[in-house]
Write a structure and sequence with these properties.
five-stranded mixed β-barrel; alpha+beta; 19% helix; globular
């Protein structure tokens, strides 16, 4: 019984950590907006000097907007701060703010 509780508690912690990985505020540059499908592509800006790349550009990610009106305030090329969650393997944008 004790081992089962330990395994379930560990699984719960791992699930919480995995779901909160996307929850932190991130920064990036808007690459593409598809207002018909409520999707946006953002080139994530890396924090710090990890890797020492000149541009500091991270991965290009595509997100589905939680609310289509979020996309009205931004355009391709805008620097943004955003938050996203992972819903069934799809990134969903929960916050988007132009810098």
């Amino acid at each position: 019984m004790g081992t089962t509780k330990f395994i379930l508690a560990g699984a719960a912690v791992m699930t919480m950590l995995a779901s909160s990985a996307f929850a932190d505020d991130m920064t990036g540059v808007v690459s593409r907006i598809d207002r018909l499908n409520s999707t946006i592509s953002i080139q994530q800006t890396q924090k710090g000097t990890v890797g020492g790349s000149a541009g500091g550009a991270g991965a290009l990610q595509e997100y589905k907007a939680k609310d289509a009106a979020m996309l009205d305030a931004v355009h391709a090329g805008d620097r943004v701060t955003y938050s996203a969650t992972d819903t069934n393997g799809t990134g969903t944008l929960t916050k988007l703010q132009k810098q």
